[in-house]
C-alpha cells in the first residue's frame, strides 16, 4: 500500500480558494511522513460559513504564501504517487482550479477515493462520510483539519486493504473492481466500477433477502457472512450484530489502530458464546495483547466464559484458571477478571 492521502480546506465556495492543504505519505501500509500548508487564497476573501466549518480565519493565513508560490514544494511532496482523498472529486477539483488560477500546468495524475473504496468494501454501512466511517473504525481525529482528515483518509484505505486481505492499492482496486481516476490538462475522470454491466446482471439473479435478515422499524438489516479473519481456510460464520452491539468485523479492523490491549497478557477460560476461541485469541493479538495458556502473576486479564461440561461434572462452580485468578486477585495483584461480554465492551469503549 503505497500512496499519498490529501485533503483541502477552502476559504469560500470557489474551488480555487484553498486555504489549507495536507499530504500524508504511506509506504508499505505505514504512514511514514506528513506535511500541511496554510495558504493565502487569492482573492483574499473568506466566507463566514467556511470559517465556521474549519476554523481557519483570514488572520491565520494573511502572512502565508499563495498557492502558486507553494506549488513547487507541494509538487515535490506529491511526486508521482497515486493521490487518495475522501470525496476525491472535490479535492482534485480544488487542486486543478488552484493550478489554473495561478498559471501552472496541470500534471498528469492518478487518484482514488476512499468513499468509493468504502462503499465497495463495507456495503452494509449506512453512511460513508469521513466522520461516520472513522467513528465506525475507531479512528479518532479532528474533522475539517486538513492534516487530520488526510490521516483519517489514509487509515480508511489501509483498513479496507486489511479487511480485503490485500497488500497493495492495485490489488485492492482489482478486488473491488474499481478503476483508478485520472486527471490532467484535459480534465479529470473519477474512479469507476469496472464490469458494471456484468455486476448488474449477476445482482439481478441473486435470491431475495435471506431469512437471516431482521426487520426493524420497517427496514431490513441483513447480517454479514465473512470469513474468519484468523485462517483463510476456516469456514465462514455469521457475524452481524450480537446482543452487545458488537460487530466482529469492525472490532478486527479497528483493533489494528487502537490496540487497547497493548502489552497485556490475557487468559481465556470456559466456553465463549459470542466468539469462537480462535477469534477471541486473534482479536486479542490484533489489539496488542498476548494470550497465555495458564494464569500466573504475570497475567493481566482473565476472561471467563460459561462452565464447560468437565467442570460441571467435577462438581465445581468455576474453572481451575478462574479459581487461580481469584486467588491472585485476593492477594492484591493487578489481575482483572471479567466476563466475555465485559471484555468486548472494554475493547469497544477504548
TrEMBL record:
GO terms for cellular component: cytosol. This is DNA ligase. GO terms for molecular function: 3'-5' exonuclease activity; DNA ligase (NAD+) activity; nucleic acid binding. NCBIfam families: PRK06195.1. Keywords: Ligase. DNA polymerase III contains a core (composed of alpha, epsilon and theta chains) that associates with a tau subunit. This core dimerizes to form the POLIII' complex. PolIII' associates with the gamma complex (composed of gamma, delta, delta', psi and chi chains) and with the beta chain to form the complete DNA polymerase III complex. PANTHER family: DNA POLYMERASE III SUBUNIT EPSILON, EXONUCLEASE. DNA polymerase III is a complex, multichain enzyme responsible for most of the replicative synthesis in bacteria. The epsilon subunit contain the editing function and is a proofreading 3'-5' exonuclease. It comes from Rhodopirellula islandica. It comes from the Bacteria. SMART domains: EXOIII. GO terms for biological process: DNA metabolic process. Gene3D superfamilies: BRCT domain (3.40.50.10190), Ribonuclease H-like superfamily/Ribonuclease H (3.30.420.10). Its EC number is 6.5.1.2. Residues 180-213 are annotated as: Disordered. PROSITE patterns: BRCT (PS50172). It is an enzyme of class 6 (ligase).
Amino acid at each position: 500500500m503505497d500512496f499519498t492521502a490529501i485533503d483541502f480546506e477552502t476559504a469560500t465556495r470557489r474551488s480555487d480558494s484553498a486555504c489549507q492543504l495536507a499530504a500524508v505519505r504511506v509506504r508499505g501500509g505505514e504512514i511514514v511522513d506528513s506535511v500541511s500548508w496554510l495558504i493565502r487564497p487569492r482573492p483574499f476573501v473568506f466566507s463566514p460559513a467556511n470559517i465556521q466549518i474549519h476554523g481557519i480565519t483570514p488572520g491565520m493565513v494573511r502572512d502565508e504564501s499563495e498557492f502558486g508560490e507553494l506549488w513547487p514544494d507541494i509538487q515535490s511532496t506529491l511526486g508521482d504517487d497515486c493521490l487518495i482523498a475522501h470525496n476525491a472529486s472535490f479535492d482534485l477539483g480544488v487542486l486543478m482550479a488552484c493550478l489554473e488560477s495561478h498559471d501552472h500546468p496541470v500534471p498528469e495524475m492518478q487518484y482514488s477515493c476512499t468513499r468509493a473504496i468504502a462503499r465497495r468494501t463495507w456495503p452494509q454501512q449506512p453512511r460513508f462520510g469521513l466522520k461516520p466511517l472513522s467513528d465506525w473504525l475507531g479512528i479518532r481525529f479532528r474533522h475539517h483539519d486538513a492534516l487530520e482528515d488526510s490521516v483519517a483518509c489514509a487509515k480508511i484505505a489501509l483498513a479496507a486493504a486489511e479487511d480485503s486481505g490485500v497488500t497493495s492499492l492495485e490489488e485492492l482496486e482489482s478486488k473491488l473492481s474499481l478503476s483508478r481516476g485520472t486527471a490532467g490538462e484535459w480534465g479529470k475522470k473519477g474512479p469507476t466500477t469496472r464490469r458494471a454491466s456484468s455486476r448488474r446482471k449477476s445482482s439481478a439473479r441473486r435470491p431475495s433477502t435471506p431469512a437471516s435478515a431482521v426487520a426493524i422499524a420497517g427496514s431490513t438489516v441483513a447480517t454479514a457472512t465473512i470469513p474468519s479473519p484468523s485462517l483463510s481456510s476456516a469456514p465462514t460464520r455469521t457475524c452481524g450484530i450480537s446482543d452487545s452491539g458488537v460487530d466482529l468485523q469492525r472490532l478486527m479492523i479497528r483493533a489494528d489502530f487502537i490496540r487497547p490491549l497493548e502489552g497485556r497478557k490475557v487468559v481465556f477460560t470456559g466456553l465463549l458464546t459470542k466468539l469462537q476461541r480462535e477469534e477471541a485469541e486473534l482479536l486479542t493479538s490484533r489489539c496488542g495483547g498476548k494470550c497465555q495458556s495458564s494464569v500466573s502473576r504475570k497475567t493481566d486479564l482473565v476472561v471467563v466464559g460459561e462452565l464447560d461440561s468437565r467442570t460441571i461434572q467435577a462438581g465445581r462452580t468455576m474453572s481451575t484458571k478462574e479459581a487461580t485468578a481469584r486467588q491472585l486477585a485476593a492477594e492484591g495483584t493487578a489481575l482483572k477478571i471479567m466476563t466475555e461480554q465485559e471484555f468486548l465492551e472494554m475493547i469497544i469503549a477504548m
